[in-house]
């Protein structure tokens, strides 16, 4: 059972990852969360010269309530600064509570700063690459983007913040949203292979339902 469970979860994980090739861009756009490894990775991208500035976007979500002193974006920005990113090259959007708001509020922030980047590097958790891409392309279709995440495998990802079970639950919630959100014009449509959806259904049948939409 454990081997089968792992194979099903690995299939869903692999689908979520897009494996885009990094290229130099106009802006590193970090969608913040409870995973500070994303902040560390984004800081390294800046230090490696992939873009001239970073935007950290994220308020306080369900998973980060009480976790950080301030918002997700403020906490991530401090990590980046501590790692050597100049504060003058960091912008912070501390109000958004979901992926759509990450994009909409960052649009407003950049407009207010009179910045108009055309190509973005979106930085996310590995299992949120695909939904981030689909949401960005719907919300900001006149821009270009690639999505990247820390080089962490499915087996390496769980830690003291997110358990193996939590990870599967969140991955399934994201996969369900990839399927249904285009109907609400929240995201562009993404093809889901039959074997990936069968893996989703099998894991739901096992009991991984905590992050599914209530009407799903």
UniProtKB/TrEMBL annotation:
This is YdcF family protein. Residues 26-144 form the DUF218 domain. It comes from Photobacterium sanguinicancri. The lineage of its organism: Bacteria, Pseudomonadati, Pseudomonadota, Gammaproteobacteria, Vibrionales. CDD domains: YdcF-like. One of its GO terms (cellular component) is plasma membrane.
């Amino acid at each position: 059972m454990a081997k089968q469970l792992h194979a099903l979860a690995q299939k869903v994980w692999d689908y979520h990852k897009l494996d885009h090739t990094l290229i130099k861009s106009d802006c590193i756009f970090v969608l913040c969360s409870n995973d500070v490894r994303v902040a560390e990775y984004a800081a390294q991208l800046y230090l490696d010269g992939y873009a001239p500035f970073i935007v950290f976007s994220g308020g306080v979500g369900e998973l980060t309530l009480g976790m950080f002193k301030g918002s997700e974006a403020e906490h991530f920005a401090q990590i980046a600064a501590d790692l050597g990113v100049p504060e003058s090259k960091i912008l912070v959007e501390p109000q958004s509570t979901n992926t759509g708001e990450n994009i909409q509020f960052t649009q407003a922030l950049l407009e207010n700063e009179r910045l108009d980047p055309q190509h973005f590097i979106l930085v996310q958790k590995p299992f949120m690459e695909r939904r981030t891409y689909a949401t960005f392309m719907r919300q900001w279709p006149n821009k270009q983007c690639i999505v990247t995440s820390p080089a962490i495998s499915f087996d390496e990802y769980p830690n003291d913040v997110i358990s193996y079970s939590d990870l599967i639950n969140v991955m399934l919630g994201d996969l369900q949203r990839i399927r249904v959100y285009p109907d609400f014009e929240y995201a562009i449509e993404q093809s889901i292979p039959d074997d990936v959806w069968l893996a989703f259904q099998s894991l739901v049948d096992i009991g991984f339902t905590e992050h599914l939409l209530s009407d799903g």
